[in-house]
Amino acid sequence: MSSAPVPVFSTRVVWDDSMLAYNFGANHPMDPRRLDLTARLVRAVGLFDLPQVSIEVPEVAADSELCTVHAADYVAAVKAADADPDGAYGTAGLGTEDTPAFSGMHSASARLVGGSLAAADAVLSGSVQHGVNFGGGLHHAGRARASGFCIYNDAAAAVQRLLDGGVQRVLYVDVDAHHGDGTQEIFWDDKRVMTISLHETGVSLFPGTGFSDEIGGPHAHGYAVNVALPTTTGDSAWLRAFHAVVPQLAEAFQPEVIVSQHGCDSHVDDPLTNLRISVDAQHAAALSIRDLASRYCESRWIATGGGGYNITSVVPRSWTLLTAVAVGADITTTTPVPAEWRSYVTERYGRAVPALLGDGADLWWQSWEAGFDPNESVDRSIMATRKAVFPLHGLDPWFD
């Protein structure tokens, strides 16, 4: 018996080596080589050569485009830091250990925004169904501040581009290990945008925000959604949390486009976080988001990267699988990693990498409908979120 055919989606992938200029220097966790290795692996498995895939070189976003989500004074501050990286910079979050200033930072940051804008424009025009910018997802940047390795917020700019292009409802789903605080802040009081962030609790992880009682501004109660997960959550509980919150709210919200942030720093081998998630679970979440876009948005979906600091064995595999999900390629967690790519990593970095794109994880998880266990910390986190926002959308926090 033959298996069902894999759905194929026209997809615009944003990529060019110029995106490697977003570089905070040696020993900084946000190593641009993770993007280079991802692009090399995407190419090695043949995704760039598929007929449904088009590649776009991103342009540097104009100041007017940046100012759709950032304050003009902040953009000016970034340019000043660019011109004088050794200077002192007020309270804009620039020149810190997390976001040190460097020469060329404005154009490098604005180019990543240009990439997500290009993906949004391609989806808006109808020329493609999906857009992918694995170099984007800089979700900590706020309207007037840099934070957490993020200078400009490309994902927020893409959401705003969609709104300005006539889209009435955008669902933003963020599965990075860190709270998507910048994107939440920018759309805090805009009920045209629902932001859902599933992340390690701010009690144990930067930026210390993203609790269930953060539900949006006075005109948008219930449109900021946060699932603050306990440390060492693991695959089954993480997927249980995702499916206990995201599909129900997507159905209630009825988005026209989904923008998602796929930081893979939730991985068990990531040096900065504690959630202990596998590449397989990250892949499963991407599949679920794609399915939601197919169900509610006529397949209009823009996927970005984000955090991820194991640059050789995790980031390239996770975002190659993300790209494969977007384009509808028959590439899965059991697909072998091409030998030439593995040899390149070993020779260049002296590190061994897994033989398969996935981790071979068991992804069994129990549906929320099976029951709520108040003795489980993950279930308490899920219920806190459902109680905070579900009734605001006509949903029952216990049963929907």
From TrEMBL:
Statement: the UniProt record of this protein carries the keyword Ion transport: no
Pathway: Ketone degradation; acetoin degradation
Domain (Histone deacetylase): residue spans on this chain: 28-324
Pfam families recorded: Hist_deacetyl
Keywords: Acetoin catabolism
Alphabetized Gene3D superfamilies for the sequence: Histone deacetylase domain
CDD domains, A to Z: HDAC_AcuC_like (cd09994)
Gene Ontology MF annotations: histone deacetylase activity
InterPro entries for this protein: AcuC, HDACs, His_deacetylse_dom, His_deacetylse_dom_sf, Ureohydrolase_dom_sf
GO biological process: acetoin catabolic process; epigenetic regulation of gene expression
Keyword Chaperone: no
Family statement drawn from the similarity comment of this UniProt entry: Belongs to the histone deacetylase family.
Protein name per Swiss-Prot or TrEMBL: Acetoin utilization protein AcuC
Annotated source species: Arthrobacter pigmenti
